[in-house]
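Training component of the fellowship. As part of building independent skills, the fellow (R.M.) carried out the full modelling exercise for a liganded target. The chosen ligand was adenosine-5'-diphosphate. The inputs are recorded below so that the supervisory panel can assess the work.
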Amino acid sequence: MDKLILETRAVNKIYGAGAAQVAALQSASVTLTQGKVLLIMGPSGSGKTTLLSIMGCILRPTFGDVVVHGRNISACDERELASIRRRYFGFVFQAFNLFRSLTAQENVEVVLRMKGRSKQRIHAEAADLLDRVGLARRAHAYPRDLSGGEKQRTAIARALAGDPPIILADEPTANLDSKTGRDILQLLRGHAQELHKAVTIVSHDPKVEEVAHRVIYLEDGRLKS
Ligand SMILES: Nc1ncnc2c1ncn2[C@@H]1O[C@H](COP(=O)(O)OP(=O)(O)O)[C@@H](O)[C@H]1O
Ligand SMILES: [Mg+2]
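Fellow's submitted model of the complex:
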């Protein structure tokens, strides 16, 4: 039942050129399975965000391949990559990346519109997602009036919008108190298990280990098991 949905094959990432070159990732091979939570741990600067961005087709590897749902994306142009990102991924970024001039509800609606949901469904679906993350009462608040935890939960509702099969979250508990952090992790784990999503969490928070099915470690751009 648990199917492979994404694979990186020996991906390398080199930033910069000449003397300023940084080898941020070296030969990283990772698989994502539906229904499971993968945790990527490692110290700051070890390449976690780089790996997550490559998995999410936001960043191209310098060498190596990324295969999403059986398709090697190396040959895809930018337009095709954008369409793959919309279809397969929900992202939770470290800095939330919410639109400040939009309410929590509208931040979720934007994604649903991008994913081509019908006008009639958008409002109801966004309200439903905010309800799932426990934010129904704050749906019409703007980011400036939301706490860190509420912003994070809005970002998670947005990542789940449009029902993508893969959720990628970069340090989703970094700015949260431990109770809110645990709630969010349980939510992500439930999402993986009940809806068969592949969830990847980048973190160095030990709480995340409690919800992960599999943990991999990065050190200086290399994976250790
Ligand atoms: N855009 C970039 N240009 C140059 N170097 C970068 C860039 N992004 C990240 N790096 C470097 O690559 C390494 C890995 O960074 P990153 O993936 O952000 O690690 P982590 O998320 O584990 O903290 C670090 O040495 C970082 O300084
Ligand atoms: Mg990072």
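The panel noted the following from the submitted structure. The mean pLDDT is 93. Residues 4-224 form a domain with the Rossmann fold fold (CATH 3.40.50.300).
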